[in-house]
Specification:
Strand order of the largest sheet: 2-3-1-4-5
Shape: globular
Structural class: alpha/beta
Helix content: 40-55%
Number of helices: 8
Order of helices and strands: EHEHHEHHEHHEH
Radius of gyration: 16 Å
Bound molecules: thymidine-5'-diphosphate
Length: about 190
């Protein structure tokens, strides 16, 4: 089983990932949390771009994410799935379908470039207003706040546009972590029992 956790920076997905892993472990499942971008060679280049140390076009950024993801699928994701491990993806190709769409690329174009990637069983998108998310992460970022806010609004819109995707569940994340997790667990249980 492959569970993908998504959302804008500051949405609380790391907290929910930990709660979900703990719950699944308690039930005796074998789980692994995998994060993208990775620490591999392509991931390192991406971190340089994301931190402004290196310039790239949106198309180049997408290509780097895809190279990073191909390596991740081959080396970690597919082997874990083959072992029967439940894979919790803290960002996966749905991040590209939101962030790189916000950067100006077409969503179906991006989706079609991910034929190589095993599909998630469920994609949880933790949704909240950008202003609330930024309040949560304030201090963590040195990026220009206004620029960041405008960009994240586009990312949020791109995530919300994925609502009709059959794998996607939009989770209202303006609630306590416990309340959010209650819904997460209900949604995950539905696909787990299928
Ligand atoms: P994030 O998980 O938010 O990193 P941090 O540990 O710093 O919170 O991911 C880093 C950034 O990468 C985030 O702003 C989203 C971006 N990103 C994309 O633009 N496309 C992608 O495909 C992925 C996986 C991430």
């Amino acid at each position: 089983m492959l569970i993908n956790l998504e959302g804008i920076d500051g949405c609380g997905k790391s907290t929910q990932t930990k709660l979900l892993q703990t719950k699944l472990d308690e039930l005796g499942e074998t789980t692994v949390v995998l994060k993208e971008p990775t620490n591999g060679p392509h991931g390192q280049k991406l971190w340089d771009i994301l931190h402004g140390k290196r310039k790239a076009t949106n198309e180049e950024i997408l290509e780097f994410f895809i190279l990073d993801r191909k390596q991740h699928v081959n080396e970690k994701i597919q082997p874990a799935l083959d072992d029967g491990t439940i894979v919790l993806m803290d960002r996966y190709y749905y991040s590209s379908m939101a962030y790189q769409v916000a950067g100006g690329l077409d969503v179906e174009y991006i989706r079609n470039k991910h034929d190589f990637a095993p599909n998630p069983d469920i994609v949880l998108i933790f949704d909240l207003p950008v202003s609330t998310a930024l309040e949560r992460v304030r201090g963590r970022s040195e990026a220009d706040e206004f620029e960041k806010e405008e960009h994240l609004k586009k990312v949020r819109e791109a995530y919300l546009n994925l609502e009709s995707d059959p794998l996607v569940r939009i989770v209202d994340s303006v609630r306590t972590p416990e309340e959010i997790f209650e819904e997460v667990w209900k949604l995950v249980s539905e696909v787990r029992n299928e």
